[in-house]
Amino acid sequence: MASRDAMIAELVTMRARGEISQDELEAARKIVEKGDRPADTVETKPNRKPDGQVSFGQGMKFGGAIFAFCIVVAIISSSFETGGDGKRAASRDGSECFSVWDGSSREFVKSVKSQLRDPSSFEHVETRFTEKNARGEIGVRMTYRAKNGFGGINTETAYGTISANDCRLVSNKN
């Protein structure tokens, strides 16, 4: 029961982030609810056959339901990312370029870390960004903490530009 609720919660989160449409959410929800019947439980005791082989019998039904769910999520996810034509879909506003967890841009963090004396001391504090401009670029300001050359911790700010269409770092002004 808890795993079904967790899967539905993840689907709702994906919908809130705009990764899937309402129709895709409902279709996936039906699959999850249909696949989590009491008859689909995992058998814990292996069946021993006379020749010494071990079989897990009906336990494969539950694994098959999980596998089918993963395939559906992968298809939905890939159609969102590629827009159906094999190319990455153009962003609406570029907000998907930033982490839902802490708001950072993976590309920007990687670039800033590469310029530090001690990259392992990097600690993200905050990232703010502007709206997409006419060229499809987003201005980014990231505040972070890291060790300086004397071992003390400094709080610094880095500025950059990210392409809203493919989330790549265009420039980094540190």
Description:
This protein is of the alpha+beta class and 174 residues long. The chain has 2 domains: 2-82, no CATH class; 95-173. It is 36% helix and 22% strand. It has 4 helices and 6 strands; from the N terminus they run ααββααββββ. It has a 4-stranded antiparallel beta sheet. Strand 3 and strand 4 (137-147) form a beta hairpin. Helix 1 runs antiparallel to helix 2. The longest helix is centred in the middle third of the chain and has 24 residues, at 59-82. It is elongated and about 60 Å long. The N and C termini lie far apart (49 Å).
* Mean pLDDT value: 77
Strand order across the biggest sheet? 3-4-5-6
Total count of helical runs of at least 4 residues: 4
Total number of beta strands:
6
The domain tally reads 2
Instruction: Return Rg in Å.
Output: 23 Å
The biggest beta sheet is recorded as:
4 strands, antiparallel
Tell me the distance between the termini. 49 Å
Helix content: 25-40%
**N-to-C series of helices and strands:** HHEEHHEEEE
pLDDT < 50 runs, ≥5 residues: 36-43, 82-86
Beta strand %: 15-25%
The coarse overall form would be: elongated
What structural category characterises the helix and strand content? alpha+beta
What's a concise summary of this model?
The chain is 36% helix and 22% strand. It is of the alpha+beta class.
